[in-house]
Each structure stands twice: as C-alpha cells, then as structure tokens.
C-alpha cells in the first residue's frame, strides 16, 4: 500500500472513531528504553532528549537520566533522596526544565511509617534523608545534551543542602552543576483520628511546573497545589481539593482527590486527580484552576485513575488534550493496563490511542515526530506511542 493511501486510510479511521466514540484505534506501545529505576516523570529537552526522574530502588538511589533520540540512557544525577514509603518506593517525582535549570520535586520517601491501625501513619524517627518533601534546583553548566558527566548527591551533601547551602559539583572535564533547595516543605501534618490521636498525613510533592519565577507544585499527599517563589523559597497554598463522593456500595463515603501532576494552560492550571480508595471508576478527572482568582472546576470528567494531562496545539492552533490513566481499574486483580486518550475538546468523545500501558505515570510529546513518550513506573521502561 502506498504511503498516501496509508495516510488516507489512517485519517479515515481516526475521523470515524472520533465521530463514533469507539476505541478501535487503540494500539500498543514501543519500548524506547528499559532498565530504569521506577521512572515517575519526564520532560522533553529542546534538543529532543528525554530527562527522566526516577524514584530509585532503595534508600537514596533516586536518579535523573537522559535518554537520547536513539534510546541510549545515561545518568546525569545519582544518589538523590529516596526511601520506602508505606505505599512503595518514593523519591524524585516531578521534573521541569527552564533553560539550563532543572526543578525536581522529592516525594515523601520514608518520612512516615505505617501506624498500628490500617490507614494510619506515624513520623519516622530516622528517615533515609532530610530532604524529603522538597523542591531542588539544579543549574547545569551547559545545555543538558552537552553534559556527559554523571554527578552524585551524597548523604553529606544532602545534609549541607538542608541548611540552605548552594553547592557546585565540578567534574575533571570542567562540566559542573549547582544544586540548592528551592522549597523545604513540612514532611507531614497531624491528622487527628479518635482511634489514633497521633496520626499524621505525609506531604508528597509529585509534580512541578515552572512559569517565570514561580513554581506550581502538586502535593498528592496533602491534596493541594502550592505556588513557590523561586527567588525566596516562600510558598503558599493556591488550591485545595476536597474529597470526591464515592458512588460504590462499599468503602468510605468519599475518596481523596490525590493530585498527581500540574500543567500550565494559559492562565489556568490543569491538574489530574487520581482519587484514593476505593478507586471508583469514572470519578477521576482533570481539574482546572484559574490562576487569577484561584477558582476551580471540572475540565475533563469521567476518568479512572487519572495520572497526567497534556494540552497540545494542533496545526490549526486549536487546543487538544491528552489524558493518561494509570489503570482502567485500580481494584482489578490482576491490575488492568492503563490508557492514553485524546480529547479534541474537554467535552468531546475521547479517542483511545493506547490501552496496553503498564503503570504509566507521565507523558512528554514530541510534536515534530508526533510521538508521545510515556514512563512506566513498575516496568522501568519508557515507551512511545505514535499520535495520528
């Protein structure tokens, strides 16, 4: 079949699916890179490389990797704070890039431990790092593609950074990076329970977006969005997310919102709400936050375990929206795959582009090649899906 006929055939299918609202176009992904340590988020560099935040595989094994356009991975930064939380490995989570500066959120790690009653938590008296629930700034000496050295964040360096120090690491080649803590958030807040008065709730920064001198940070543990001043480190709560009603005949009456990322969209923020137990299908959503007056509303509803959203301009300068769902059913045993969907508008019938993703956690889009790159936390892979 000729390329023109193939393109025409694919276009007809895509249009038919958009009109009919079916998911016959769903495809499987292609492995780009494997062997990563629990990749959580990624960002695309101006040169087309992927910069990936990896939670790690044990205490202080968090990592930032660079994956080039041929799929080759190399370590940029190793030894970042990580630890075993009550829900699994937690370390580097959100990542964004502005010029030569990386902004990286560090999750809850092992700052809290499981309490004596299911669903309760206690402060950990000896966490693996002092930098959990923080945002780091890492300034590179040259463009990210040109940095060929690997730098290590040691435990001693973490202790220095905790005091507010700004440290520069220089390799024998002359390449360097400068790292500092932009925001040091509280590891937890107290959440009284009659059956366990000492209960706490962990802070879990899980996504970051940079806009000028401001960072927007999603906190999946505290169910809120923080606005952070890069220059001073001052932060304030921009938006809180109330629990969502549980429509299931079992479980608590409401489920926590669990905002897992944050994206800029003009003067708005788009925030995917994963939702907590009992993980009812269809109540997850993309929430829109107005940065002018802090009002919020449902932007895209009817999702399940929403973990990322990405607004993209079409060739005609129209907005379209990709959503990523961690799984089609968090109560499934075994866990069903996750899905990548395309919405031509917030209220349009979605097109399912991929439905075989295993624990997808974030996406980055290369508009030139029409390629969506997706991190898979459990498999340790970065995969790609071609967008028609």
Can you give a write-up of this model?
This protein is mainly beta. The chain has a single domain (18-386), classed as Neuraminidase (6 Propeller). It is 7% helix and 47% strand. The protein is built from two helices and 34 strands. It has helices at 3-20, 155-162; strands at 30-33, 39-44, 50-54, 62-67, 73-80, 83-85, 88-90, 92-98, 101-106, 112-114, 121-123, 134-140, 151-152, 167-170, 176-184, 188-190, 200-202, 205-211, 214-219, 224-229, 235-240, 244-245, 254-255, 263-265, 268-273, 284-290, 296-303, 306-313, 319-325, 338-343, 351-357, 360-366, 371-376, 381-386. Strands 2-3-4-5-13 form a five-stranded mixed beta sheet, with no helix packed on it. Strands 8-9-12-15-14 form a five-stranded antiparallel beta sheet. Strand 19 (214-219) and strand 20 form a beta hairpin. Mean pLDDT is 92; it is low at 1-22.
Helix and strand topology:
Elements: H1 3-20, E1 30-33, E2 39-44, E3 50-54, E4 62-67, E5 73-80, E6 83-85, E7 88-90, E8 92-98, E9 101-106, E10 112-114, E11 121-123, E12 134-140, E13 151-152, H2 155-162, E14 167-170, E15 176-184, E16 188-190, E17 200-202, E18 205-211, E19 214-219, E20 224-229, E21 235-240, E22 244-245, E23 254-255, E24 263-265, E25 268-273, E26 284-290, E27 296-303, E28 306-313, E29 319-325, E30 338-343, E31 351-357, E32 360-366, E33 371-376, E34 381-386
Parallel strand pairs: 5-13
Antiparallel strand pairs: 1-34, 2-3, 3-4, 4-5, 6-7, 8-9, 9-12, 10-11, 12-15, 14-15, 16-17, 18-19, 19-20, 20-21, 22-23, 24-25, 25-26, 26-27, 28-29, 29-30, 30-31, 32-33, 33-34
